[in-house]
Specification:
This protein is an alpha/beta fold and 382 residues long. Helices cover 39% and strands 16% of the residues. Strand 9, helix 7 and strand 10 form a beta-alpha-beta unit. The protein binds 4'-deoxy-4'-aminopyridoxal-5'-phosphate.
């Protein structure tokens, strides 16, 4: 047993691993990542077995929560925003320059982690109706965190406007050390381009170009736009479908070409948005990032909170997959599209983040796992 080591597996069985044959370890040779940035991208595409069996389609989910810096697709975006700003001479690594961003959490967490690795500071403006797990995490990463009023109340103190104002204050103050920039994920081209250059090509390669639908919600719209712009010219038959939560106007925009009028619908908008437990997707204005891909979106599906919560529970019970709210919305919509397409098709969606970030809000609404009430997919989708 000279060239072997003994390890204990999950069932407490002692097994011997042959170390004289490194190929048996299933790791690519030389697989060493260059810092935390080297752990971003190339995420697995997981076949969700329960949903695939139930629909007769292959339902594949790109596990973006396995991005290794901030554990969401926003790692790709944050890294690209910083790299572009460095190329433009707006930021200098290890200078202590400050990056300001308005975010419901994920982008802030990715920025905060990458800022640490590259020697920047992060100032994050986040609505105070989002799960506290995300603001706690930001503080532990050493970001400055300002919790501002809920996302749908749009004025100068809204989270995005606040971050833009803070960056401007920094820039105009001669006594502030370093430079300040506004990351601007909702409008910057660096957002959708990160998905055009990463997420889209990875899906194309992982499926060998064989997929019938791509289904996903939109917050900034960066993911749906970047992936659609990469895939559509290569797969003209591909259906790109938006999944939209309660209170969002994007569904209407895709289906009927109209948006909620923010002034006219202020009361309704506020009530609906604040009531949803889904975070990170759904919006009532057209961002630049949504606009660059909108013409490529074929259809839209509305998903309720109850459907998303039941789906999240289903995925734990049947597959051991523990996801957050926007991922659950994506999976409900992907399953509905699979049913529409009929057996034998392939649908790809995205798992954005882990349920661990949503314990106090989204998951607090879920009934206990393994309870008496048997879940049926028909109930989830109705
Ligand atoms: N899921 C989560 C958890 C998010 O935070 C976001 C972005 N705010 C999204 C999905 C939506 O992605 P995008 O901004 O690319 O539309």
């Amino acid at each position: 047993y000279k060239d072997s080591e003994s390890i204990v597996d999950a069932s407490n069985r002692l097994i011997l691993r042959d170390l004289s044959n490194p190929a048996a370890l299933h790791l690519p040779e030389g697989d060493i990542r260059e810092g935390i940035e080297g752990c971003i991208g190339n995420t697995p595409l997981i076949k969700i077995k329960s949903l695939s069996e139930a629909t007769g389609c292959e339902i594949l989910a790109k596990a973006e929560f396995l991005n290794g810096a901030g554990n969401s697709p926003k790692d790709r975006v944050a890294l690209n925003i910083i790299k572009v700003a460095e190329e433009e001479g707006l930021l200098t690594p290890h200078s202590g320059d400050m990056i300001y961003e308005g975010t419901v959490g994920s982008t802030g967490i990715s920025l905060a982690a990458i800022c640490r690795a590259r020697g920047y500071l992060a100032h994050i403006c986040m609505p105070n109706d989002q799960a506290t797990e995300k603001s706690d995490l930001l503080l532990k990463l050493g970001a400055e965190v300002e919790r501002v009023r809920p996302a749908p109340i749009v004025d100068q103190n809204q989270f995005v406007n606040m971050a833009r104002n803070r960056a401007a204050e920094h820039t105009s103050d001669p006594n502030r050390p370093g430079r300040g920039i506004f990351a601007d994920q909702f409008e910057t081209e660096a957002n959708w381009e990160a998905h055009f250059n990463g997420t889209g090509p990875e899906i194309f390669r992982q499926t060998a170009g064989s997929l019938d639908a791509f289904v996903i919600g939109a917050g900034t719209g960066g993911t749906i736009s970047g992936v659609a712009r990469f895939l559509k010219p290569r797969l003209p038959e591909l259906k790109v479908v938006l999944a939209d939560p309660p209170g969002s106007g994007l569904y209407n925009k895709v289906k009927f070409g109209v948006m909620f009028d923010p002034k006219e619908r202020e009361g309704t908008r506020r009530r609906h948005q604040v009531d949803t437990v889904v975070e990170g997707i759904g919006i009532n204005r057209l961002t630049n990032n949504f606009e660059v891909g909108r013409a490529l979106i074929d259809d839209a599906v509305r998903v309720t909170d109850d459907q998303a919560i039941a789906m999240a529970r289903w995925l734990v019970e049947k597959d051991g997959i523990f996801i957050g709210s926007s991922s659950a919305v994506n999976c409900v919509a992907a399953t509905k599209i699979a049913q529409q397409l009929g057996p034998g098709h392939r649908v790809v969606t995205i798992l954005c983040d882990s349920g661990a970030r949503h314990l106090s809000k989204f998951w607090a609404r879920a009934r206990p796992i393994g309870g008496e009430d048997e879940l049926s997919l028909a109930d989830i989708l109705d």
